[in-house]
Design a protein that fits this description.
The protein has a single domain, classed as Jann2411-like domain (Jann2411-like fold, Orthogonal Bundle), CATH 1.10.3300. 49% of the residues lie in helices and 9% in strands. It contains six helices and six strands; from the N terminus they run αββαααββαββα. α1 crosses α5 and α4 packs antiparallel against α5. The site of one zinc ion (ZN) has 9 residues, from loops.
């Protein structure tokens, strides 16, 4: 895996962690209380390693990541930067070459065995997004009763919904309002 691929995977994990702790509505339903399984699912987006997924270790970082990212679709980049810089400092994010068992050396931005280390990694991935042309790809779902953030992966930047269920709900609602 290329170093930049790893950071890309960590960005997707960062957005997923932000949604897990920051969204109050997700895909039409009130957000579930985050549990260990939810955090594990986030981590699997970027690592196969076992990490302590005691929910309390992730809650504050997840919420602050959401606070930062949710500014972007509104074009409030300076405010996002403020939160990201604060998180970089708080998690002591710093590049370090790490090796797990017999795997090759690769770059991490925090201790890969701890929640704080992964949040440092996620914040670094978010910081890389803020400094790139992809910053406009970070969107908030346009469906009602959904606050999830997502990275628009379409070539012409036209993705409006976080997921097919949200797209379908919106379509059905629009159809209903036309026919009644
Ligand atoms: Zn690693
Ligand atoms: Zn949605």
């Amino acid at each position: 895996m290329e170093a930049t691929d790893h950071l890309k995977a960590s960005l997707l994990a960062a957005i997923a962690l932000a949604n897990t702790f920051g969204s109050t509505w997700r895909q039409g339903r009130p957000a579930a209380e985050p549990d260990t399984a939810a955090v594990d699912a986030v981590l699997r987006l970027t690592t196969n390693q076992a990490v302590d997924s005691d929910v309390s270790q992730w809650a504050l970082g997840g919420r602050r990541l959401y606070d930062a990212l949710v500014f972007l679709p509104e074009g409030r980049v300076d405010e996002a930067v403020e939160v990201v810089n604060e998180l970089l400092k708080a998690t002591k994010a710093a590049p370090q070459l790490t090796r797990h068992a017999d795997a090759p050396w690769h770059l991490h931005f925090g201790d890969p065995d701890s929640a704080t280390g992964w949040i440092a990694e996620f914040v670094t991935a978010t910081a890389a997004l803020l400094g790139s042309n992809d910053i406009h790809r970070l969107r908030r779902c346009e469906a009602t009763r959904c606050e999830d953030l997502f990275l628009d992966s379409t070539r012409n930047h036209t993705q409006r919904f976080c997921s097919p269920p949200c797209q379908n709900r919106t379509k059905v609602a629009a159809h209903r309002s036309r026919t009644t």
